[in-house]
Amino acid sequence: MRFKVPEVTVGRLSLYLRCLNELEEEGIEVVSSSELGRRCGVNPAQIRKDLAYFGEFGTRGVGYYVKELKGDIKRVMGLHKTWEVALVGLGNLGTALLRYKGFQQHGFRLSVAFDVDLKGKNVPEGCKLYHASEMEHVIREKGIKIAIITVHHSQAQEVAEKLAKAGVKGILNFAPTRIRLPNKVVIRNVDMGTELEILTFYLSIKGTR
Amino acid sequence: MRFKVPEVTVGRLSLYLRCLNELEEEGIEVVSSSELGRRCGVNPAQIRKDLAYFGEFGTRGVGYYVKELKGDIKRVMGLHKTWEVALVGLGNLGTALLRYKGFQQHGFRLSVAFDVDLKGKNVPEGCKLYHASEMEHVIREKGIKIAIITVHHSQAQEVAEKLAKAGVKGILNFAPTRIRLPNKVVIRNVDMGTELEILTFYLSIKGTR
Q: What is the value of ipTM here, to two decimals?
């Protein structure tokens, strides 16, 4: 890739993918950038700009071939294969995420889960539950590259370091603390508090309060 | 506000706030933009650019007064007061979010929760549980402006419309479906699948797979 791709662009690629899926389900084979824009709620010029990071897409005066563009975006995002994902921490949030339909829809498979206390914990079909002490061993053996952390915030950093040592390259962290690791591991800290704050910012601009 | 503020800037404001909180807890009164940058993992020039949307902050050659900047950002984000928040849908995810420490840390109070089935549901202290049929009435009476939706995706749009009618101005939607409402309501769709996709994008660039 020649340029650094902004994170917002990557987020929008994910959105385009979702819209293209919808179009495909409706049996639509070709879509103009203005129609795709309308569906995604994104300016058509923005769509063209986002896609331009990755090459030339679409045909002038015709639009985009839905199936083709979908395949291209999936390749760009590394989604042409299914990723196995490990989840660490089976509290309420971890349990909820294991059952979250959105992950499967996106081609992820939460195949292993870990907790320090297995009593009363259960996981959906297709997922295997292990004690936390087996984490590094299982992850290394299965070659899992992505993990979701939903442990208590006081444990998050330690868990992340162990995961990295076992070969994990990408971590989605839901613990309300910032994890720091060497650059070779990609970390996304999902802070729900931040999501609410962004909401209040826009409400404040609008003078709701 | 004179300019449209990019959403990434708003997200970073939230991050700056968190770093300023840390500094305050450590008893640090003044911070340079380079030190603040190091802590937040953001380029100092970017920090200055982000803050410039809202006015002039900091003193040349000195830096930022921690307490002052914190107060300013809170005001900009509408966080100088506590917001009451309603949660709709007490499945695993809803239950997890009710107990999520991050919201309180950010000055939000999840004070009411609704579900169609109250059997076996319980909520933490300070939160009151109601049947979904009382939702519009309770929200209107309490003047609640923010709601979190964690219902099944087939119900999300309908719930959102009811909330908007009852006076809610901002919605955080965790159901894996896009909610559409008139512009006067601000909606943030939190799609955990997207979060994982952004991760795989960066892993793919790095050649992890």
A: 0.82
